[in-house]
Amino acid sequence: MAAFEVIDDEGVSFVKVALNDETVRAESGALCYFFGDIEIDAQVPSLGRVVRNLLAEQSVVRPSYTGTGTLYLESSVGGFQVFEMDGNTWILEPGVYWASEEDVTLKFFRERVMTSLLTGEGFILLRTKVSGKGKIVLKTNGPVEVIELKDQRLATDGNYVLARTEGIAYRSKRSARTFIGSVLNNEYRLRVYEGTGRILLSSYPYWRQLLSTGKMPKRA
Predict the structure, then answer these.
(1) Which residues contact 175 (CB under 8 A, 6 or more apart)?
(2) Structural domain of 88
(3) Does 219 map to a domain?
(4) pTM exceeding the 0.85 threshold for the entire prediction
(5) CA–CA dist 59, 97 (Å, integer)
(6) What's the total number of domains in the chain?
(7) Domain of residue 94, CATH code
(8) Looking at the chain, which terminus has fewer C-beta neighbours within 10 angstroms, N or C?
(9) Residue 220 lies in a domain
(10) Which pLDDT score, from 0 to 100, does residue 94 have?
(11) Band of residue 219 on the pLDDT scale cut at 50, 70, 90
């Protein structure tokens, strides 16, 4: 299995990937440099895939790297989280996917139209859906907390959730019982996640991320 290592140096983070006759996939533009016997492959996507990727605000092409050597991905003032897929299916927010092993499958998941409209994310809202077994790297603005829900509900005032397992439903609701109450508390709508499964939550940024922007960052 490919070895992923997150390295912190000089106020930034980056991912080092050690390959031993293996293949990994990465986000478009994520490569910094590599050494060793590694081949890059970027397949021409179908028209349907191009349209889906653009609607999901994801890269149209995610190149693969095959061979033996060491791969270094671009650095960030944010951070990266490596975790092991255990056969479950996860739904990722836009801009979160960074890299993964070959056996991790990437597809799309469409949110309900009403949910996407109420959260101001357009008529069609597609997420990246990952499944299978293997390591995956997520890009994050801050520390990541794993939250287990057992027929429970989590509500957030903002896009602090990085990913959720397929058993967690997502919707939008008023923050208060009445319209006036929701307006007065300055938190009109909440993002609600409910069901049974796991959630990856990043509720506050790294200090370096905050200093670089001067405000609480928003994922692309």
Answers:
(1) 157, 181, 182, 185, 187, 188, 189, 190
(2) 3-213
(3) no
(4) no
(5) 10
(6) 1
(7) 3.60.160.10
(8) C
(9) no
(10) 85
(11) very low
